[in-house]
Amino acid sequence: MNTQHPITVSISRPEKSSRLWALSFLLFLFPKAIALVPHFIILWVLGIASFIAVVIGQFAVLFIGKYPQELFNFTVGVTRWSTRVNAFFMGLTDIYPPFQLGE
C-alpha cells in the first residue's frame, strides 16, 4: 500500500495576526466575506468550468488513456485558488489571496 500522498497543503502559522480582521470577523461576521466577493464570483464560474474540465478529462482517460495536462493544470489551479481563499476566510492566514491559478 502506497502511503505517500500526492497533495501537500502547507499553511504556516503567522507569528502575528491582524487584530482588525479578527475583531471585524467576530463583531460583524461579514467584512471578510465582503472583501472576498470578487473571489467568490470568479471561483463560482471557474468551479463550473472545472467540473466540465473534469468530465472532459474523464472521457479523455477513457478513450486515449491519459489525462490531458492542460485540463489537469486548470483543475489544480482552481483548487489551489479556492484553498487560498478559504484559508484567508477562516483566519488561517492574513495574506489576501491573489487572483491567480498558479502557485
Question: What's this entry about, in short?
Answer:
The chain has helices at 19-28, 31-35, 37-64, 69-89.
Q: What does this protein structure show overall?
A:
With 103 residues, this protein is mostly helical. The protein contains 4 helices and no strands. Helix 3 runs antiparallel to helix 4. The radius of gyration is 17 Å and the shape is elongated. The mean pLDDT is 83.
Q: Helical segment tally? A: 4
Overall mean confidence score, pLDDT: 83
Shape: elongated
Low-pLDDT segments, ≥5 res:
none
Q: How many strands?
A: 0
What is the structural class?
Answer: mainly alpha
What is the helix content?
55-70%
Strand content: under 5%
Cα-atom radius of gyration:
17 Å
Order of helices and strands: HHHH
- Beginning-to-end CA distance, first to last residue: 30 Å
Note the main sheet: none
Write the layout of secondary structure elements.
Layout: H1 19-28, H2 31-35, H3 37-64, H4 69-89
Helix pairs in contact: 3-4
